[in-house]
Design a protein that fits this description.
alpha+beta; 35% helix; globular; 4-stranded antiparallel beta sheet
């Protein structure tokens, strides 16, 4: 991986299927966005949380992508589906892999 980003989407009770459907519609655009190398999806069933494991050419590419998602209104669509609304979404920008630790 070049630049690891982990994004967690905690679904509100009863909303996991809606969240999965919404992400299924959105992720093809994510995967084709400039600088996106890959996006893998995992579901933590115990907490109804969808985790995206993303690999980006740079964290700047991912920042441009996030700005685009905000501009195009995806966070507004996710708001009623997420525990805590859009503020419940958690992004961890890990960056490049360290090989000397």
């Amino acid at each position: 991986m070049k630049n690891l980003v982990i994004v967690s989407f905690p679904a509100r009770p009863g909303m996991i299927e809606n969240l999965k459907t919404t992400l299924k519609g959105a992720l093809p655009e994510t995967r084709s966005f400039d600088g996106c190398i890959s996006v893998d999806t995992y579901i933590e069933e115990a907490t109804n949380t969808v985790h995206l494991i993303e690999d980006w050419e740079s964290l700047e590419h991912q920042a441009k992508y996030l700005d685009w998602r905000i501009e195009t209104g995806l966070l507004e669509v996710l708001e009623p589906l997420l525990e805590g609304g859009a503020a419940g979404l958690k992004a961890t920008l890990c960056g490049p892999k360290y090989v000397d630790i």
